[in-house]
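Hello again, I could really use a second opinion on something today. My current little project is about how a certain protein chain folds up. You're getting the sequence in one-letter code plus the fold written as tokens. Here's the protein in full, and shout if anything looks odd to you:
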Amino acid sequence: MTDCIFCKIIRGEIPSGKIYEDDRVLSFVDINPINAGHSLVIPKKHYDTLFDIPPEELQACIMVCQKVARAIVKGVGATGLNIVQNNFRPAGQLIDHAHFHLIPRHEDDGFLTSWSGTAYPPGELDKAIAKIKASL
């Protein structure tokens, strides 16, 4: 038995604002929302990151993300929605249980909509592509 806060929510040891639940996936509102309706989708089995989730469990999570995202947009009258999934501390993962953030968005809500990127230096794009392809 794990001390993971999300596992405790799944077991009913910690209350949550459940939105959706089936045999594999749970969705509930985030207690520290970016916007009203900000929710999480988690697999009921404990997996630390996206990299650990078996394909069939990941598929179940994504299907629930789509279903709940539609309900959030309609329910709170959002004009957009971000799906965010962080892995490991450098990427902002704070809870070591894989989860998806569904964040409803509104025009001029004051939150960043994208990152500012930087063009690859000459020749570096092809090197990056080659390294990624070699790792597939």
